[in-house]
């Protein structure tokens, strides 16, 4: 090992050890906040004026994010806070089984949410590029979303069977606590049952759950941006020919949703791509295995924070989402007092009031109809 590698390793060790002391106390409140924001997102996107194919996918993403956050909330509370500073030794058999369950359910649910985001990008591109040829409804989305779940679960099977609970003589695992003649037994996670199966599992996680989704998101985000630019130029030409034409609101809505998707893509690249590259590197050279594991807490906090960042994007980019959230969270007397009632005429997409007047007929006013819109 050369001096540069040694310095990098020492730096990472110091960072990992220092951050481990505060990781539990940082991640525990973040998971609570993330669970609450994900539940709010699911409730809002399930309302009538939000029931579109795009928003249905975002509901699925929020649902699987909630599973990850809920599991990590329990894990961080028990192992990092209640059992600090020696969280991973001398646990009961139940909590060791929970640690294995948490690891598997976390990777599974997070990977499903990530592939649902890819599905969103693909469907957005398909709808925008071929609006007259493609029709996507809620049934199609539900079938595709749960097909993704099935495929991810099947790919995770090697990981599910790789680890089990094993008992150790306490003096072997905790020599500083127990004497050599102690008969105490402690439980922890067994070493991988099959090295070949472990390599398969790592390659699946690296390629299928880290690198591939990032590449797909980048490709379709770029295609969406190019498509929106072409659509904008085409509409500008049409508007010049027909001065009465006004379609800027639709274009702005498409741009807003596409911008949000691009921001989610950038966030995903930052979180997932380094993990995928390091997993591939450690499969090639085992020395990178150490670097991957000492950064484990850092990977966790970035993945967990991404769901909360997505909620912030929803709030910052959609006035309708903000107003629905205010109505959901605040009591009605506060909404009335501060005049925060949703102005449906200005926020929701509507069919304009039309006055139809014939020679011998009275004035007819059509009632506005709310049409569900993307977030």
TrEMBL record:
Q: Which organism is it from?
A: Adineta steineri
In terms of PROSITE patterns, this protein maps to: G_PROTEIN_RECEP_F1_2
Location in or out of the cell: Membrane
Return the protein name: G-protein coupled receptors family 1 profile domain-containing protein
Q: Name one GO cellular component term.
A: plasma membrane
Chain ranges of the G-protein coupled receptors family 1 profile domain: 36-314
Q: Which InterPro entries match?
A: 7TM_GPCR_serpentine_rcpt_Srw, GPCR_Dmsr-1, GPCR_Rhodpsn_7TM
Q: What is its main location?
A: membrane
Give TM regions.
Answer: 26-45, 57-81, 101-123, 143-166, 204-231, 260-278, 290-315
Q: Where is the signal peptide?
A: none
């Amino acid at each position: 090992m050369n001096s540069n590698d040694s310095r990098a390793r020492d730096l990472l060790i110091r960072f990992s050890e220092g951050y481990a002391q505060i990781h539990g106390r940082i991640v525990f409140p973040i998971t609570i906040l993330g669970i609450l924001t994900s539940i709010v997102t699911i409730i809002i996107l399930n309302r009538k004026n939000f029931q579109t194919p795009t928003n249905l996918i975002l509901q699925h993403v929020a649902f699987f994010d909630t599973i990850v956050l809920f599991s990590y909330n329990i894990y961080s509370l028990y192992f990092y806070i209640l059992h600090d500073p020696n969280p991973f030794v001398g646990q009961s058999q139940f909590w060791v089984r929970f640690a294995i369950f948490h690891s598997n359910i976390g990777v599974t649910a997070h990977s499903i949410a990530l592939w649902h985001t890819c599905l969103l990008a693909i469907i957005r591109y398909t709808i925008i590029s071929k609006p007259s040829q493609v029709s996507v409804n809620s049934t199609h989305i539900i079938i595709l979303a749960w097909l993704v779940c099935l495929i991810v679960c099947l790919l995770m099977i090697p990981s599910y069977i790789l680890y089990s609970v094993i008992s150790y003589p306490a003096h072997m695992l905790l020599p500083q606590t127990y004497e050599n003649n102690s008969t105490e037994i402690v439980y922890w996670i067994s070493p991988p049952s099959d090295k070949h199966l472990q390599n398969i599992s790592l390659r699946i996680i690296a390629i299928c759950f880290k690198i591939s989704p990032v590449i797909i998101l980048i490709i379709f985000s770029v295609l969406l941006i190019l498509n929106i630019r072409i659509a904008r130029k085409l509409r500008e030409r049409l508007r010049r020919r027909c001065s009465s034409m006004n379609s800027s609101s639709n274009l702005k809505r498409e741009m807003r949703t596409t911008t949000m998707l691009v921001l989610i893509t950038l966030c995903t690249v930052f979180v997932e791509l380094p993990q995928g590259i390091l997993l591939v590197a450690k499969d090639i050279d085992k020395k990178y295995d150490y670097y991957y594991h000492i950064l484990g807490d850092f990977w966790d906090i970035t993945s967990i924070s991404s769901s909360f960042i997505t909620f912030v994007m929803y709030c910052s980019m959609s006035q309708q989402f903000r107003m629905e959230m205010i109505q959901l969270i605040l009591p009605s007397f506060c909404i009335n007092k501060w005049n925060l009632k949703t102005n449906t005429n200005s926020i929701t997409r509507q069919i304009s009031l039309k006055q139809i007047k014939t020679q011998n007929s009275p004035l007819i006013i059509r009632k506005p109809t709310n049409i569900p819109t993307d977030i």
